[in-house]
What does this fold into?
Amino acid sequence: MEEFVEQLQLKDAFDSASARKRCLRYRRRILDISQRVTALHIAPAFSCLEIVDCIYNGLMRRAHDGTFLDSFLLSKGHGCMAQYVILEDLGILPSVELDRYCTRDGMLGAHPDYGTPGIAAATGSLGHGLSMAVGMAVAERNFSPNITGTNRVFAVLSDGEVQEGSTWEAVLMASTLKLNNLIAVIDNNDFQSLGRTSETHPSFYPLADKFVAFGWEVAETNGHDAGAIYQAITERKGGRPFMLVAKTTKGRGVSYMENVPIWHYRAPNPQEYRQALDELKEVSS
Amino acid sequence: MRNMFAEVLYELGKEDPRICIVVADISPAGPMEKFRQEFPERFINVGVAEQTMIGICAGLALKGLKPFAYTIATFSLYRPYEIIRDDLGYQNLPVTVVGIGGGVIYSTLGGTHHAQEDIAIAGSIPNMSILAPCDPEEARAATLYAGRRTSPGPLYLRFGKAGEPVITAGALEPFQFGKVRYLRKGDDVAILSYGVIMGMAKKAVDVLAARGRSVSLIACPTLKPLDREGLAGILKCHKQVIVIEEHVPQGGLASQTKQIAWDSGARCKLKTFTLKDEFIHCYGSHEDILAAHGISLDAILKEVE
It folds into this structure.
C-alpha cells in the first residue's frame, strides 16, 4: 500500500479571519433563503457551518482544473443548508437553485440528494453516512492511487447519529481497515429532538474515549473555530482513521436560536429574521 | 449454487478490476479463497455487521466499483433493509446483494433463517432487480449477468445453498435476464417455478410426462422485472398452469401471475402453491418444511389429476 503523503497540496495556511467572514456571509445567506420557505433546518446548519467551511475552504484538495480530489459526505444530511451555501460560494451550485430551494422547479431539498452537483451521496436518514464514507475511502485507497497521495474522504456526522448501531459497525470497520484517508468530524451540539443528549443519554459521554477504544485517532476542539478545526486535522499523526469531536452550539450565531429545540426545523418570521441579521452584524463588527 | 457463485466471481474478478465483494462473516470456503488470495484488496469481511456491509458497498459503488454483498438472505436483505432502500435503491447504485438460503432451505435452523418474504420485500424497492436461479447452471448465468451488466441499480440475487442438482442442462431456451425460459414444452399443463423448489417442479413434470401428459416446465429466474409478456403467453397456450413458489403468497410470482392472468384475460385453470403466510415452528428436512406449508409432490400431482 502506498504511504500516505500528508498535506502535499494544501494551501499554505488557513486564514481564520477570512473563515469568520465567510461564515457570517453564509449565515446571512441561509437566513435570506429562510424567508422564502415555511421551514428549513436552520439550527443544524448553523451548528456545523464552521466545520463544513473548514473542510471545503481549507482541507479538500483540488486538481488543476478545479475539481476536488478529496470527497466530502455530509452524513447529517439535515445540515445541508451549510453545504448548499458553500457549494454556491464555490461556484458548484448555481444561485438560482438556492433561490428555488424546496420548490417544485428547483433541485434542492431539505436533505442532500445524490446527483445534485457537489453532493457525494443522498443522506438524511441517520447512520448511513459513515459506512458509505468507509466504502469510498477503501475505493480511494485501494483503487485510485496517485502521486499526490491517497485521496481523502471527509465525513461530518451529527452526535445524534452516533446512537445508531450502524454507525458503530462502520467505526469498527474503519479502524479494522486502517483507513488513514478517512477523516470524520462529529458536530457535537449535544442536542436531539427530545432534549440534551447529556441528560437523555448520560452514557453517551465520554464520547472521544469511545472512538479511541475502537482504534481511531481522536481529537477534540471548538467546532465554531475553523482555525482550530484546521489545526486539529492537519496535525493528526495519521496511520489510522481520524475522528474530531467538535464541540458546537445548535443554532450558533443567533441568540434566540441557540440551544432552542424548535429551531431544528423552523423558518424565522420577518421580525425574527431582522433580529437575526442585526445580531450577525454585531458579531461581524 | 454458492460454490458456483464463488467460482464465477473469481472469473469475473479476473476480467474486471472493479468487481469486489463484501461479506459478513459468511463465505463459501473453497472457491472464494481463490478470489480472496488473488484480490485481497477487493475482499472485505465486515464480520457480523450487515448494515455496514451494505453501506460500504454503496460507498464502493459511488466510487465506480461493482460490489457484491454476501451473506445468508435474512441477514443480507432483511437486517439492513432501510440501508438497501436508501443507499442502493434511492441512489440507484449497481450493487448485487447476494442472499444465500432463499426460502426455507435452512430447514433445521428455524424461522430466523428462513427468507420466505424476500421476493416481496426486495421487489417493493424501486430500481431493484431480482434474480433467483434454480440450479448451479442458472446460478452461473445469473452471477455472470450480475457482474457484467452495465445497467444501474441494485440486484438481489437469491440462491439456495449447496449441492443442488442440475435441472436446466437440456433447456429449450438459454438464460436471459428479464425472460422466462422453457426447459420443456407441451401444450396441456404448464408448471412454472424458480429457485431450489424447481427440483420438485421437475419431478412433477417427469411423472406427468410418463403418464402421457403434454407438459411444459418453465423457469422464471427473473422476479423483477417480471416477464409479463412471457407469462401472459404461458397462460394463453396451456389448459392448466401451476405456479410453485417457495415464498409467502403475497408479492411473489404466484400473486403476480394471478394479476397477469386477470389483466390478460387468461382462460386457463390456474393453481398456485406457495408457502403459507405463517411462521411454522417445525424442524426437519427441506421437504418436511415445505410439506408443513402444504407443498409436496403428491399435492401437485393431485391438482393435475
